Amino acid sequence: MAAALGKESGAALTGSPGYDPTPTQSGGWHTWRRLDVGADPAAVKKAFGKRKLFHALSGGMSPAELIRNGGVLASTERRALMGNPLRHRDERGLRHDDRRARSVFLRVGGGSNSGDVFEWADPTTLLQRCDWYAYPGDHFGALNPRATTSAPPRSPAIPPRGHLHGHNNEVMFRNGIDLLGSEAPSRIRCSSPKRREDTLAALAARGITQLRASPSRRP
Description:
By secondary structure, this protein is an alpha+beta fold. The chain has one domain (22-138, 156-214). It has helices spanning 10-14, 35-39, 41-48, 63-68, 76-82, 124-127, 193-205, and strands at 24-26, 29-31, 52-57, 72-74, 103-109, 116-120, 132-135, 170-174, 176-178, 187-189, 210-211, 214-215. The protein starts with 9 loop residues before the first helix and ends with a strand.
């Protein structure tokens, strides 16, 4: 790894900014951190500007349901293993029982204007993970080179610099995202006052008053 990153030795690698060999737990599985994001998170934030990562729920699923059922935004494959029903549709209209995706789909942009939305204003919260990949258009998360004409970009600076400006851009994270731990969103936007109240109640039932550094309070 040291040689691949242009370091003179393993000791030079372990002493470099951003190096962390310890895996972190996320929703029941483990992930590792990227060296480049950890070494210079400010550069990633600057590149993103006002853009954020977000996931819009649809098909009747509510934030309160996710919080009560483990607090994990899980891929369809993981939900199947958990025994959860896969009947709702995602933001692209795909039935979740039609495709057993191994990743969770997010988008880069200003956020959805309707529905229930999880927003990550600080992209490094998730992009520090080493298991993500992305496309400028909708490729349904395909990794098969025959299914797409472009290789998935992996640089955290690519999305805000034009590669993911399209409405159907997608950023995939393997297995899922822990919504209540260190990967929690900076904001949960609810589609109605009733859903907001249900979300606050679900958080309170788990003893949670903050998502990362943002207090869970009524607007």
